[in-house]
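Hi team,

As requested, here is the filled-out complex form for the iron/sulfur cluster run. I kept the field names the same as last time so the parser does not choke. Let me know if anything looks off before we queue the next batch.

— J.
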Amino acid sequence: MAEAAKPKTSNSGQTLAQKLLARASGSELVAPGDIVVVQVDLAMAHDSSGPRRWKPHLEALGASLWDPSRIVIVSDHYVPAVDGESAAILKLTREFANEQRIGHFFDMEGICHAILPQKGLLRPGIFVAGGDSHTPHAGAFGCYAAGFGATDMLGIVVTGQTWTIVPETIRVELTGRLQSHVSAKDVMLLLCRELGMDNAFKAIEYGGPGVAAMSMDERMVLSNMAAELGGEVGLVAADDVTLAHIRAHGGTASEADLAWKPDPDAAYERTISINLSDLEPQIALPHSPANSFSIDHAVGAPIHQAYIGACVGAKLEDLHMAAQVLTGQRVAKGVRLLVAPASSQVTSDAAADGTLSILLAAGATLLPSGCGACAGMGAGLLAAGETCISTTNRNFKGRMGHSEAFVYLGSPYTVAASAIAGCVSDPRALSAELVGVQ
Amino acid sequence: MTETASMGRAFVFGDNIDTDLLAPGHLMKLSAQELAQHCLEAIAPEFATTVEIGDFVVAGNNFGLGSSREQAAVSLRQLGVGAVIAPSFARIFYRNALNLGLPALFCEDAHRIAEGDQLMVDPVLGKITNKTRGEVLSCKPIPDHLMAMVRAGGLIAHLQSRRGT
Ligand code: SF4
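And here is what came back:
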């Protein structure tokens, strides 16, 4: 289907995306615009995009899986089953994983993007194909991780290969230091506005001292929301923080993996610099992540629900941010605060370190780990006319329930502060007030 | 004009038509036929019932952004949409559309097409003839190897026909 790779000589340096695609396609050099056939190292799919879509076609084609040991299946969209249909989808997924001897199957342990790093499955340099649009999440580990639809994924799990067009790269350079109550989520809401969501067939590469200072949980937010920018991948070159995270989660990493970084003279389509020291909390108004402003534009807008969930917004550090704001506070009357940790590991870590009890004492309702209301499938959906503020990554019309519901996107700090106030609130104002009280 | 050319009416939409508008998340358990009846209903409640086989969806920038869900492209195909024409597409939607046999055409001048215009679209030549306005617009032709797949009805049908099943 695709043309063979045509290695090109180039005088300018290589972006990280180019280097990763050269490796995956077995070429010496690749240039933006080349169509390359790549070997996939890890293929990931979930209960909605995976087995239930592949099974009938695999049977009709009489095809088998290329390498079950390199396939990861995560049941996260329909968990836990709430009706006959979701139960049947989960059952089919379980049976498929069993019959096909899938190497890595995680049933109701959490959201697929949270699972990959948590299980130590990522390593700098590899090509990850995921049957989900937020697969770029894994780019925080220096992997070329791109999302594909179910039919593309079917081709991938049968052949182990796919094709792509080598993207041009937009470099995002972060300098300075995040102020208190400001996070990577605010960086991404700002970028959605500045770069827009129409960067299809482009790679986003993040770097600079601001990125170096971030934890892996924060870097994953940058990579995850490269999807909102329309990017194919959201890349962060590996450093010691990356290697330490991989090792701590049982994965394999070596110093040699640090070679996966862009050349200093790499040719970028453009570079955008953000000084984190000047960044204020951002908020996306309904119905687009790019409809974002600094928080003061929306302060005071009443809310019915505050949702702390999703791959992007319910990792352990996200819960820590919420707990920092919610300590000793109560959720406003008439507002429901829902917390769906990104994985069962996050839930148990948050229970162990006391975070969970802070959230519960503030009046939060704990929901199962999974995509839940973020996917419009699980608990926490909205009725017509209701407004929610959410740590998720998308607020399209109809995504979290009714098409006449309204969703604001903010950081865990902002969502927690808004839950206390009953309306969209600046988390910095709340902490200033507390200092005043003391 | 080549044999892949077809005629139909234009249904015009704006920028950033996302996958939740095309295939709402909370309805994803419905069958493809049922789900298609809700395609774009949040912004165009009559679309699913008035679009006819061979009609075209014409839109602004970044068509199909959002989820990787193929039901977005499947719904348009179910309704018989002949092609989607837009200045730019989200990457996963673009791949999904071709994989499912729905031509997606990059056309810088898509904004020159108005609701209800009669179009003759040739994806191989990259030519859109607007009969209503007497205008010819060009679009990026779909490369041969991809068009062979689109014509077969998508990647799976294509694989099947090559295996002779
Ligand atoms: S939590 Fe939301 S964004 Fe993340 S994988 Fe699930 S549905 Fe997608």
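Two things worth flagging: The longest strand of chain A covers residues 168-175. The radius of gyration of chain A is 21 Å.

Thanks,
J.
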